[in-house]
Structures are given as C-alpha cells and as structure tokens.
Amino acid sequence: MSDRAASLLAELESAVRGSHPDRASKAALEAFDEAVPLLEIVRTAGRAFASQYDEYAGAPRALVALWSAVNLAPVMQPRFHPLPIVQAVSFVASEKKAERPAKPAAIVSGEVTHLGRAFLFAVRAGD
What we know:
By secondary structure, this protein is mainly α. It has helices at 3-17, 21-33, 38-51, 61-72, 82-94, 112-125.
C-alpha cells in the first residue's frame, strides 16, 4: 500500500471518529482512486465506528449499512462500486458515537480450568 493510500485511510478513520461525513466520504472516494481494496476501506470505517460505538444508541445500523454496501458489489458494474460504499461511509460518520472510545475487551489466557473460572467470574461481575 502506498503512503498516499495509508494517509487516506488514516483520514477516513479520523473523519468517522470525529463525525465528519463529508470528510469521510471524500477520503473514501480518494482511496478508491488510489486503488485501495474495497474491503480495506469498509474495514477502516467499520473499525473506527466500532471503537466509539454508543451502546445506548441501539443496534449498530451503520455496520449493517457498510456490509450491505459490500454485498451490492457483485451485482453492480465495477465503475459503480464506490457509490454504495461512499454513501455507507457517510452514514457511518454521521451516526451517534460515544464521547470516549470503548474500553478494550478483557483478555484471558491460560489452561482450560483457569479459562472456565475466569469466565464464571466475568459473568458474575457483569463483563
């Protein structure tokens, strides 16, 4: 991946996290022009949205929109592939997000009995 493509993906991620749909759409379209793979653009937007997902906002419709846009690609002419993706990216950027990024998931490692115990403690604690 070229430096330009990497900077466009970083701009896309920043725009989605900052709730700037116009900037996000522009970065996604420019990434298409730089021949960034379709799934990489969607993955970047989805990851940025998921990192600040507001659990009180209801179902993550933005992620559904992204995946639906990806599923349209096989039935569309290649020159139209950017259209649903850019529209979904704009929707993802405009969705309500939490003020702070979500805390990382707890990672549990060890032998099977330890994992089982850790699971029980996590369930009891509400994690």
